[in-house]
From TrEMBL:
The lineage of its organism: Eukaryota, Fungi, Dikarya, Ascomycota, Saccharomycotina. One of its GO terms (cellular component) is membrane. SUPFAM superfamilies: Cytochrome b5-like heme/steroid binding domain. This is Cytochrome b5. PANTHER family: CALCUTTA CUP-RELATED (PTHR10281:SF76), MEMBRANE-ASSOCIATED PROGESTERONE RECEPTOR COMPONENT-RELATED (PTHR10281). It comes from Suhomyces tanzawaensis NRRL Y-17324. Residues 64-164 form the Cytochrome b5 heme-binding domain.
Length: 186
């Protein structure tokens, strides 16, 4: 079969464009590497994370149960790490040193620990819960919103969906007399 000239021309044209674009991208990355030691002009945000791009281009959000959320605690390196705050779930996989095993905030991973984000009472085991009873509700609302916005707007983390709370049973955790966020002057 003989290909028509115009067909060949078009194919050639497309290939050329791909080549030129590839060349420009490679040159851009090279220049960027020269000036900033990164291929992306110093940008390290979530848009260069293939997992974020994939999430952004797939439809819908997660809707987990508390039991499902518990799997994403960082102990299985094949799974992402999730942190939840009063029903909102965030992907924090990018910081395994903080949220993974051995990390300083590992205890909030795979859970909705809204309470500890309000009280900052990290030494008290039963604070790692979404039970907000007994807290100053204005303070709780304010702190929770701040933390949610922090994870929402972070360069490293992103919102992935919601978690449905199981009904609360028993008494709320006892009040905690503490320094808020030990080690920090808050
Ligand atoms: C999540 O699932 C629960 C049932 O498990 C349902 O009641 C709720 O409407 C769902 N929420 C979203 C946002 O899909
Ligand atoms: C942590 O996650 C793993 C799976 O990733 C699960 O098998 C384990 O039970 C979880 N730990 C807790 C305390 O939920
Ligand atoms: C926590 O989430 C529930 C359900 O979405 C909401 O009604 C409540 O106001 C939130 N509490 C705080 C303190 O933000």
């Amino acid at each position: 079969m003989v290909k028509s000239r115009s067909e060949e021309k078009i194919r050639f044209g497309v290939l050329d464009i791909v080549r030129i674009l590839g060349g420009i991208l490679a040159f851009n990355a090279l220049l960027s590497w020269w000036f900033t030691s990164t291929g992306t002009w110093g940008y390290r945000g979530r848009w260069i994370d293939p997992r974020y791009v994939k999430f952004k281009f797939s439809p819908g959000y997660l809707n987990l149960t508390i039991a499902e959320l518990a799997l994403y605690n960082g102990s299985d390196p094949k799974l992402p790490i999730y942190v939840a705050i009063n029903g909102s779930v965030y992907d924090v996989t990018k910081s395994p040193g903080i949220y993974g095993p051995g990390g300083s905030y590992h205890k909030v991973s795979g859970k909705d620990s809204a309470r500890v984000f309000v009280t900052g009472c990290l030494m008290k085991e039963d604070e790692f819960t979404y039970d907000l009873r007994g807290l100053d509700q204005d303070e709780a609302a304010y702190d929770i919103l701040q933390w949610q916005q922090y994870f929402h707007n972070s360069e490293r983390y992103w919102y992935v969906g919601s978690v449905q709370h199981d009904p609360l049973t028993g008494d709320p955790p006892a009040p905690c007399d503490h320094i808020k966020y030990p080690g920090r002057s808050v």
